[in-house]
Specification:
The chain has 185 residues and is of the alpha+beta class. Helix content is 19%, strand content 34%. Strands 11-8-7-4-2-13 form a 6-stranded antiparallel β-sheet, with no helix packed on it. The longest helix is centred in the first third of the chain and has 19 residues. The chain is flat. It starts with a helix and ends with a helix.
Length: 185
């Protein structure tokens, strides 16, 4: 009986140690391939639109151009300097809908060539949402269910609008961090 107990205890402890002995790396970061350079969540991308961004007229696969207002940096090294013109493709869009749904536009930033051999790949979309129409919500309080027929707000930014876009998640740049830092001045 004691041998079975010791054997089962040993096996249990071995399994526990085996399961928790997975190596932990500093590179193990949510939404980022190990070793890749990335922009941290809560980073702010500042850019000025060169084309209008409007959920009423935008269509999937349209191209939107913008210029960076601030440098994009990784570990205090400038990866993309300010005044660089970048472009993005609309991956999803819809105008506002009834039931208070706001307009939405998702943009995928096109690849950026650092030099002849290295390219940044922005893996995730930037999402713009129109927001809630509070006047319609107030109307539905006065006349019950009337707000169900009202639409939400549209995404509407004219050319020249400066946008401070806060990242909600880490943004993988699709290039090894060591390589990136070695090629930057």
């Amino acid at each position: 009986m004691l041998k079975k107990f010791l054997l089962s205890t040993f096996l249990t402890i071995s399994l526990i140690l085996f399961n928790f002995s997975e190596p932990t790396y500093a590179e193990k970061i949510d939404n980022v391939q190990p070793g890749n350079a990335y922009l941290t969540e809560d980073s702010i991308l500042s850019f000025k639109l060169l084309d209008k961004l409007d959920s009423n007229t935008a269509k999937k696969f349209d191209t939107i151009r913008f210029v960076l207002v601030k440098d994009i940096t990784v570990k205090n090294k400038i990866v993309i300097p300010k005044d660089t013109v970048l472009s993005a493709v609309i991956t999803k869009t819809h105008s506002s809908r009834i039931l208070g749904q706001s307009g939405i536009i998702r943009l995928k930033i096109n690849d950026y060539k650092i030099n002849d051999t290295h390219t940044l790949h922005f893996k995730d979309d930037l999402k713009f949402k129109g927001g809630h129409n509070y006047a319609n919500a107030a109307a539905s309080i006065i006349i019950p269910f009337s707000g169900l027929l009202f639409k939400g707000k549209e995404v509407q930014y004219p050319p020249g609008t400066v946008i401070e876009y806060k990242l909600n998640d880490n943004l993988d740049l699709g290039i090894n961090e060591a390589q990136l830092l070695s090629i930057l001045p």
